[in-house]
Amino acid sequence: MKTKMQMLGWLLFIVGLLIMISLSGSEYQWMRDMDPTITTLPQDNGNRAIVRGFIFSILMIIQLILCFSSSFRTGRIFSGVGFLLLIFTGWYSE
Hints:
The protein is mainly α. It has helices at residues 2-22, 29-34, 47-69, 73-92.
């Protein structure tokens, strides 16, 4: 049962990272791609940043649970790598 919960945690973590990557960037970037002469884009409403922050906090909680539920050193190392990957993704997903 513990192994199934850990696998579910890692699956949720990977899906959450993919969602964070898909929500990165500006929702109006397509306008600049279509017409490069546009210098200013409309302001974002900030909903993407709120959702990214919420997903980021949920993924941090999942990683903490995975780290403390692991009884082996390799599981904790994988959780550490997961933390680094999450921080990297959160930092560059603006």
